[in-house]
Amino acid sequence: MKKTNFLAFLSLLTFLLVNIFYVMPPRQTFAQGKTKLIIHYAKDPKTDKDWNLWIWPYGKDGKKYEFTHKDDFGPYAIIEFDENYNKVGFIVRTDEWEKDVAEDRFVDKFINGVAEIWLLPDDPEIYYKKPDKKASNPVKLKEKTKVTVHYYRYDGKYDGWNLWIWPYGKQGKGYYFTGRDNFGLVGTFIIEDTADVDRLGIITRRSEQGNDWAEKEFGDRFITKFKDDGSAEIWLMQGDERIHYSIDTIDLTPKLVSATIDGIKTINIEVNFPFTITEDLKNKIKVKDNNKEYTISEIKIDESTKVENKARRLSIILDEKISLDKAINVEFIGYGTKAATFGQIFSSKEFDELYFYSGDDLGANYTSSKTTFKVWAPTASEAKLVIYSKWNDTQGKEYSMKKEDKGVWSYTLDGDQHGTIYTYKVKIGETWNEAVDPYARSVTVNGDKGVVIDLSKTNPEKWNPKYKPEFKNPVDAIIYELHIRDLSVHPNSGIKNKGKFLGLTETGTKTQNGTITGLDYIKSLGVTHIQLLPIFDFASIDEASTKPQFNWGYDPKNYNAPEGSYSTNPFDPLSRVIELKTLIQTLHDNGLRVIMDVVYNHMYSADASNFNKLVPGYFFRTDSSGKLTNGSGCGNDVASERSMARKFIIDSVTYWAKEYNIDGFRFDLMGLLDIETMNSIRAELDKIDPSIIIIGEGWNLSTALDDNLKANQKNASKMPRIAHFNDTIRDGIKGSVFNHTEPGFVNGSTSSQFKVMSGIVGGIDYSTVITTWGGIEPNQSVVYCEAHDNNTLYDKLKFTNPDASEEEIKAMHKLAGAIVLTSQGIPFLHAGQEFMRTKQGNDNSYNASDEINRLDWDRKDKNMDVVEYYKGLIELRKNHPAFRMPTAEMIKKHLEFLDTPTNVIAYVLKDNANGDKWKNIVVAFNGTNKEQKIKLPSRGRYSIVVNGQKAGITPIKTISGGTLTLPPKTAYVLYEQTTNYALISAVAILIGMLGFVGYHIYSKLNKRL
Question: Looking at residue 12, what is its pLDDT?
């Protein structure tokens, strides 16, 4: 070959090789020990939404990634991790957390550490090969949509299972399967009102008598793929969150579904298809850890799964105790191998005897001369303390910790460790997990590492942990629920530290019109307690970003550290602590107590939580199949009934009460927690300060906990001095929060009277008709009609009465407020309710914009008459103990309902029970659109202090005659004057007559003389 030809050939070969590697998709072998993920997304050109990715390695925290590349398919992102992962979760979303597909999705097919996937908009399918690019849903839904659903349960238990289906953004309905096929249950349903939606929501649930929501599998899922005729057909499978649009995508091969360690010698396994019961079953099963194979002494068949000579579940009984700090694997010939997870062993007496730790020194125990670190990790074979120099370091110095009794590991660092950044690493099986100390007092930005702090350095200059505003009985409380950011971000708030703890400490703040805002305004209302939405460290806000972000904060990350985005410097671990203490002290100095909203019932993801990294499986509740439960619909339920989970909750609550001088706790979704835990918290808080109040959402939620153990409304009588939000009076006042157009007492219903009356008496057993949960005292009923959840009262009234004028809406709004603030129990107001707050119809604004969530101070200026009305009602309540009777006995003795027309309620607080200067107090509510008359208890003189225009303690008008005329949609409060004018008149007449008679006698005697 000539030299020139050889050079030409070499150049051509080089060109081809370069271009081949250039044009080929990047599915090359990646460096061992690392992970690369390429995600392509066929962005819908019709939308201008700024889509990005939220990515998390399975079991770890998530992070935002942008689509930084583009090809002919659309934008794509390349994500690289320094560690090897075989499962990575992702969400396509906007910064406002609008999701392209509702459910979390996972990439689990990696080749040499690399996976490449393609996504279509509104399509939950993960394509591992590039699909033909097409519109995800070209079919426009008609007014009615036919849906066929197939449902398979490998446990064979179909009784009670049904579906809840709804057009996206509209009301739902229950649907029951109508038949069986070779797959399982099947039903074809006609879903109405679907003309203007592009997806259908669906939930699989189990109903039983008296409870349609006894259990649900997963949360909301969405049907997004429809056939050309507009119908849809889907396949659902127990334990599989994915919606399948073809039976071909379902794995129906025999396999182990679960293997759980339920006793110190017992493992229960379950398969998806029945196995044949044979004498040599023992020989088909092997149980191993990384050191040895266990000897099986007995196999027990679960008789409840047995059909003829086949079954789905069995128990393996071993000869010796299982090494809980080793990885246990179960092999079942024909069904494969599965890693055993911890199940009921964690709830057993055996486990508690071995590992319950009662000490009060978990976490970083600081002194100026040394700090001792202690972490509970009984299933770890090794543990290390990791010390970092900076918050964003990826490598730290590791110290091997010493294993002590009860599963505790410890290490002591000499010297002053104030400011030291640390984490723990534990070896679980063959895997090392790194976690933040659950007991960490402060954390680095975004809560990714713990920080040792000298708490004495965090006390503000005027910190006085012994001082609290005077307070005795829970029924004396008037609670004002507030979100830190909501208060101050409005341009006309006059507050400098917008969105920060310090924003609530500022005084002298005013709107441009010169009316007060912020702390001064709240103080002027006369409320006693400010309830703050979550102020612990939560995960949904990027603390390192200065971009406006909003979230309610019900996704806890570090329970014992304050949220960094509310501090002026989230990079400084002391700032968040000092500024929160400054806020609490300022509120106390201004006569306001502080209630902390706490979320111990769930975490967004068990796998990503520090608890689960340290002790996998222990802190979270699972159902009978070993699957994590999600009773909140927002994540995974905390197993509060387990002793070390209970201990952490109690330790955390008491820490906040002692260190931050907190005056009360509001438990989010308290019905997911257990009664013993809540009563233990009450007992421990009583040791600190009996005036600390506890309130909670006692909804009856579906979770793997016996009904008689749940801390819900039905069990309220088992939890004295723990109050429950009273949704009976809430819905009675304004209608169901789950149905926008359903009215209540104030806005059009004629059947809500007794619901309202049962709340007026504080939820007690007043009579066979007027009752709520049974056997409670008034200090267990939180009376409200608006909270951060659901529509504001104003928005609800607009939905139910779309043709009403603003003045008519205002009348209904005032009436609702008057019912709340004159009822027995603990009244509760949502910030801004008193000036008719609106969220523009958004009933779940947890991550909506500031424009939706903020307190609109301009609106307050426009509705000062409503503000003054609420202030007057608060003044009335605080001045007259008759509205705050502490016992059910007093209420039954001194509160008497009067005879009234339909949808009119009137009652008298009688017999001078309250010890004030009034003889009888009459309260009356007219929920009708017409003028109504009621008969008063006597014909004496009455002073009106509340009517449709004004409220307070100053008499507006005096009436007599025994009859009260009530204008439409108004509340009246009036008191009978103690001065008996009839008696005075009679005495005057008698004196006059005596004088007349005396004069005549005197005249006659004078003549005789």
Answer: 47
Structure tokens at 715: 């069990």
3-state secondary structure of 778: helix
Catalytic residue among 100, 437, 555, 697: 697
**Span 606-639, pLDDT tens digits:** 888 999 999 999 999 988 767 788 888 888 999 9
Query: For position 944, which CATH number holds?
Result: 2.60.40.1180
Do 208 and 277 fall within a single domain? Answer: no
**Within-domain flag for 751:** no
Looking at residue 272, its pLDDT comes to 86
Report which of 325, 292, 338, 330 is spatially closest to residue 430, judged by C-alpha positions: 325
Question: Looking at the domain assignment, is residue 724 inside a domain?
Answer: no
- Token code pair at residue 885: 């009777």
CA distance 424 to 449: 9
Tokens coding 125: 């399918």
For residue 267, give its domain range.
256-342
Catalytic residue among 123, 668, 742, 795: 668
CATH number for the domain that contains residue 418: 2.60.40.10
Last residue of a domain, one of 435, 458, 480: 435
C-alpha angle with apex 309: 305 to 313, nearest 5 degrees? 30
Alpha-carbon distance values, 97 to 53, 100, 747 (Å): 10, 9, 34
pLDDT at 914: 54
Is residue 594 within 8 Å of 475, Cβ to Cβ?
Answer: no
- What are the φ/ψ torsions at residue 282 (nearest 5 degrees)? -60, -35
- SS3 sequence, 581-604? HHHHHHHHHCCCEEEEEECCCEEC
User: CA–CA separation, 550 vs 98, rounded Å?
Assistant: 13
Residues 905 and 942 in one domain: yes
Whole-angstrom Cα distance, residue 682 to residue 714? 18
Residues of the chain with confidence (pLDDT) below 70: 1-33, 45-48, 59, 96, 102, 133-139, 625, 912-918, 979-1009
Look at residue 823 and tell me if it is in a domain.
Answer: no
Is 486 one of the annotated active-site residues of the chain?
A: no
| Domain-embedded: residue 89 | yes
Q: Check if 668 is active-site.
A: yes
Domains contained in the chain, number:
6
Assigned token pair, 713: 């409304």
Q: How would you label 386-409 residue by residue, b for 16+ Cβ within 10 Å and e otherwise?
A: bbbeebeeeebeebebebeeebbb
pLDDT (0 to 100) of residue 320: 95
Nearest to 830 by CA among 797, 863, 790: 790
pTM assigned to the model: 0.82
In terms of Cα–Cα distance, which of 750, 751, 774, 752 is closest to 762? Answer: 774
Residue in this structure with the two tokens 């930005």, named with its chain if needed: 445
Q: Which pLDDT does position 18 carry in this prediction?
A: 38
- Per the CB < 8 A criterion, the answer to whether 969 and 929 are in contact is yes
